[in-house]
Every structure is written in C-alpha cells, then in structure tokens.
Amino acid sequence: MKGFLAMAAAVLLVVLPVSAYPVDDVEVNLDKQRSELNEKEELIKQETERLKALKKEVEEDIDKYTKLLGQIEKSLKEAEELGARRLRHISKAYEAMPPEDAASRLSGLDNDTAVQILLKMDSKKAGLVIGMMQTERATLLTREIARLNK
After folding, report:
1. Domains of the chain (ranges plus CATH)?
2. pLDDT, tens digit, for every residue of 92-112?
3. What residues in the chain have per-residue pLDDT under 50?
4. 128-135 own/partner pairs: CB under 8 Å, 24+ apart
5. Which of 43, 56, 111, 133 could tie 138 with a disulfide, CB 3.0–4.6 Å?
6. Would the pTM count as exceeding 0.85?
C-alpha cells in the first residue's frame, strides 16, 4: 500500500502542474482579449468623436450654404424686380412716343424685347404701334404675344 500511495502522490505531483498550465493559459488569453477589447473600444470612441466632429462640420456647411442660397435668391428677386421696373419705364417711354416713331424703334429691336415692351404698354397704344409696323413684323410680334399668353 505504501508503494501505491507513493505512486499516487507522484502522479498527483505530475498532474497538478500540468492542469495548472491550461488555467494560466486561459487567464492569459482572457487578459489578452480584454486588452484587445479595450483597444478596440478606444478606437471606436475616437472614431465616434471624429464622426461627431465631421457631422458638426457638415451641418455648419449646410447652414452656410443655405444662407448663401437665400442671399442669392434674394439678389435674383431684386434683379428681376429691377428689370421689371426698367421694362415698365421703357414701355411708358414708348407709349409717350407717337405710334409711328414707336413702331419704327420697336422694329429695330429683337423679338423678345419688342414683345416684352408691347406687353407692358397700354393695349390701345400697343395696338396703334403694331398697326404702324410693316405687316410681316407686326404678324411675327403678334404671334409671339399670343404664344406667351397661352
């Protein structure tokens, strides 16, 4: 029996250190995995902060360009209003002319400009001016005016 106990003790001495290694390996692996997870978590935090900063920058750019677009739209509207005022002014000048003079001058303008002026004029005065134009030119301008009024 003494021999059996000695042998059992020898086996235990050999088995115990061997079984301790896997536990140590598991702990080392767990520590390594924790370390890797902590590094990944830190990278994710950094990336999140970078994305937040990028989002803020994009939102600021959107605000800036929205304001710029508003200013452009305002400027275009002002330019259109100025153009309309000038066109009304020119139309009044043509209305003040004798119909023969107005017809002669309108005949020298491009179709779009002549049509715009005629449309701004009083219809009776515009009719007198068109009546004083050459037939081909009067017909062409009348067709343009009719096309725009559709």
Report:
1. 35-148 (1.10.220)
2. 999 999 999 999 999 999 999
3. 15-16, 18, 20
4. 128/99, 129/94, 129/99, 129/102, 129/103, 130/103, 131/99, 131/103, 132/99, 132/100, 132/102, 132/103, 132/104, 133/103, 133/106, 133/107, 134/107
5. 133
6. no
